[in-house]
């Protein structure tokens, strides 16, 4: 079968989709009234979205990883952070699913440490050269330091389809020697200061391990983890006084493990110093949703993710010494395994993922306000999987170097201003309703509005439902107030939906080729781009104006008003 005519077909299909989107609102569209008052502010809207991460650290130095890292850095240069597992693992740096290595620590025949920062430097260089800074995870355990039982394989052989608990290995054990563990962390931190400079490294985050409250990532006891944590934090601070340190990046809100950890860092005896408490500049836990495959389609579930965030906030807010500390939700996702396949995860390539992301982040901001906590970040655990099939269905931000629709939602967030404005939608599902029931009845057509220091207004709307099924468009009537005396305002629209900023639908229109040629690749790249559309100038009368537009199901729109 010849592929040459397909680009022409693709062009016609996409042109028809764009043209239909610009026509009058469909007859079966339902009405939605959105109001934004530019004169009423709600306070600061922190850019919590600027954190990302992945299991596989070595992808950051590969061709598609470098390209995607640049796209992340471009969102907000110097203020985007990346977290990766496996940065201290023993190995030759060859990546695999849920694995990576740097060979940072080995021992000679006499048991003396041998440090080699070559691979770690290459990874961190890749971040910094592209405007991204490390959220530096200290772990996992080098083979020479692992206390795993003799005969335990060091590297796991997990692959998609295997049971999740098969990721265990010698890498997740406590150290045989805590003094050597501390010296490793000290030497690494000292090296980073020497290579990158004190002022640069002071801007990083340092945290220890990942999800120590479960057997997949930690085979020791709670007290052994506290000891591991104390020695690592003390080592970082000895090498760099004032370094930003925290943790523990527990799975979920952490349960009794997190309660004990919070008590330990406040009033427990420090295993490294013998003093009371452990320096803590930020606290971190994880939150995941739970999609299922129901009646032949994906059904998302934001409820456990938001409920877990609420519990995590409650735990931290209940400790007087910690309630004002910055919080990073160190993994914040629709479900728990980026590399795991399955029909319930078929939301990832298209607009289900992007609309879920838009709908969930507003609720996270709302929960932070409700619990009066200092939320600094909500980290998306998604990057890319190098040299895998096109649109393979992993939780990622790009496939083979082509951005997926979800990444464009983060580009929308990057265009928001720092001041949140009062905005309401009569079709927005209430926070408590989503926590209790998800979005199973009427769709969630929500709104978020901001103002920038230069006066630009940004109005973001989304049309989300838990069920990955077709449905009528939303006919949105946007009423703007508090615009001042200016007679007209320029309006730019950015869209992510089935017809816009969507390489997945373009690839499907090509016939889903697994080996696109150079021309097709260029077309897929072009289809992934979120292009601005200039709308007719907004006429302002008495400080008010109205604007109408169609918002397709699973669509996200950003209006920037000059």
UniProtKB/TrEMBL annotation:
| Keyword Signal appears in the UniProt entry | yes
A GO molecular-function annotation: xylan 1,4-beta-xylosidase activity
Instruction: Give the E.C. number(s).
Output: 3.2.1.37
InterPro entries per the UniProt record, alphabetical: GH, GH39_as, GH39_cat, Glyco_hydro_39, Glycosyl_Hydrolase_39
What SUPFAM superfamilies does the annotation carry? (Trans)glycosidases (SSF51445), Glycosyl hydrolase domain (SSF51011)
Q: Does the keyword Transcription regulation apply?
A: no
**Record keywords, A-Z:** Glycosidase, Hydrolase, Signal
- Similarity section: Belongs to the glycosyl hydrolase 39 family.
Query: Where is the organism placed in the taxonomic lineage, from the top?
Result: Bacteria, Pseudomonadati, Pseudomonadota, Betaproteobacteria, Burkholderiales
The signal peptide stretch is 1-24
Any idea where the Glycosyl hydrolases family 39 N-terminal catalytic domain is?
A: 33-528
This chain belongs to the protein called Xylan 1,4-beta-xylosidase
Q: Which Pfam families match?
A: Glyco_hydro_39 (PF01229)
